[in-house]
Amino acid sequence: MKAKGYSTISGLEKLTPQEIKKRNVELYGSKVKKYRKRAGLSAQQLADALQITRSSIQNWECGLTRPDPEFLFRLFTILDVEPNEFFEIGGIGSVLTADEETLVKNYRTLDEISKNNLVAISETLSKQSRINTLKNSVESMSLISDYGRLAAAGTGSEWEDYPDKEKVLLLNNHAVSQADEIITVSGDSMEPQFHNGDRVLVKYCSEVRIGDIGIFFATGYGALIKQVSHDRLHSLNPEFDDVYPYEEGAKVIGRVLCKVTEDIIPTPEQVKLYNEAIEEFEIQG
Predict the structure, then answer these.
(1) Where in the sequence of the chain do the CATH 2.10.109.10 domains occur?
(2) DSSP per residue over the chain, as a string?
(3) Boundaries of CATH 1.10.260.40 in the chain?
(4) Which pLDDT tens digit goes with each residue over 99-157?
């Protein structure tokens, strides 16, 4: 004969008495027993604290019944366990660390005046921690100007007299801390090191050493990105001609420090924190 089924709360699933008992043990019974023992309480001591019978505790632990909601909240307090820990709910902050558990336990031993003092101290420390986090955010990033200017890795590019300026936020490193401007590569003459569309960090200077990559402005060519050779501006791609600055009258704009790569582009969360920091410090004056 088929065993009688029992509906769950949803009414969609049928469980036998044996299945219900097993589920009760998994969800409640084993947890009650585990945290009761951790708290150093016998079944009778827990029953006395809850003002119920010892058999009620035994029924919970063996899965015959489960605690009513009114007893659950009292259980959490008596057994000193967080609800998320009891039900093993994952995620950030769901389970207290050992240090956090110690803080909670110590807090519960304090008198009301000491509790108020501890709360005030924690609020002060929290505010200071936030200030430190905001300061670190500002110090870890820099705004670099991007005028939308192109340096051709090919035949040259003209620059507007008054280009629009955009500030680009980047994570600080040695190159970012030196950079004055972001310039975009246009063309293929500097492949394979620089590709069309690459953005490069440029430091303004009047001279560039042999072997360095620089940004130049040459009569008849416009803005160029080239490698400095002893008597010419060299194209890394052999399919493109070199430029002879002494004949063409090239002017040095700056030295290329590196490409703008993914590792120096802040995440949306980092950008948000940076903007919060700027707003906070502007408000404070």
Answers:
(1) 141-264
(2) -PPPPEE-TTSS-EE-HHHHHHHHIIIIIHHHHHHHHHTT--HHHHHHHHTS-HHHHHHHHHTSS---HHHHHHHHHHTT--HHHHTT--STTSS--HHHHHHHHHHHTS-HHHHHHHHHHHHHHHHHHHHHHHHHHHHTEEEEEEEEEEEESSS-B---SS---EEEEEE--HHHHH--EEEEEESSTTTTTS-TT-EEEEEE-S---TT-EEEEEETTTEEEEEEE-SSSEE-SSTTS--B-HHHHT-EEEEEEEEE--GGGSPPHHHHHHHHHHHHHHHHH-
(3) 6-89
(4) 877 888 888 888 889 888 888 888 888 888 888 988 999 999 999 999 888 888 656 56
Residue 59 has which token pair? 């029924």
For residue 16, the Cα-to-chain-centroid distance in whole angstroms is 47
Q: pLDDT (tens digit, 9 = 90+) per residue, 142-174?
A: 999 998 888 886 565 667 666 778 899 999 999
Token pair listed for 200: 């490069």
Least confident of 3-17, 45-59, 87-101, 249-263: 3-17
Report the top-level CATH class of 141-264: mainly beta
